[in-house]
Design brief:
Length: about 300
Amino acid sequence: MSSLTIHSQQGSVTRGHAAFGSIVFVSTIMFWRALGGLVSYSLSQESASHVVLIPFISAFLLFTERDRIFSVVRPSIPLGASLIFLGGIAYWKLGSGSLPLATLALVFVWVGAFVCSYGLAAARAAAFPLLFLLLMVPLPDATLAWTIQLLQQGSTEVAYLLFKLLGVPVLRQGFILSVPTVTIEVAVECSGIRSSVALLITCLLAAHFYLRTSWKILLFILLVIPLTVIKNGIRIATLTLLSIYVDPSFLHGSLHRDGGFVFFFLALVLLLPVLLLLEKSEHRPSTPGRGGLKQALLP
């Protein structure tokens, strides 16, 4: 590639950065009310505590993969402007009274800004960071309630089976488990929705960095569902048994309130061999700047 071509490409990237930054800045002002509501929702709702981090993670991914993403920059103004217009209309017509729709409209505007500034080729290369922005969108109340209920049911079932396997007498009635001296209810707060979302995000990032085959990526991400339920059931059973045989305060102490990271780490430990096996089976050379998982783990 000649120095003139390189200089021209660098100029396109610089102009793209300026255009993208300007559109994001203007859209942030226009969507300020929705963004304020999103931040408040994220800080007050356990299920949405990740929301405020998503744009920064996407920006970090764009930065770390910038050489690949911005290798070809050809602004696609008509397509990008159409996405921006669609997002603006959706916010004006539907989003003002709905936080999920308002956030989705903002994602459309930002994706449109990217396409408008850098082009379709760059957008394809940046597909993961751009689609990752969808995790900003809060789940509708009905969908969230359904998800939490499934987690409650699964966690209760796993805890019940663990008690049975360990020979602990147990009676189950809905989300209530009765064992000797203790009766516990797997309440909404015990569903593990926050750690479930954190595990999903972690698996998405791990799959993006270390896997390339579509079905392997899908398989690895789908493992989050059963593993989340198993992890949460183990947590419930462990705290209950500790309260019976060690100290009743385990049901209300720091391990119950703040010990979710311990069982989250357990889930990661269980997922690590699966990720290593899937990565090894791909038989591909490491992409520049993306060493294999073993290389990343070794000093």
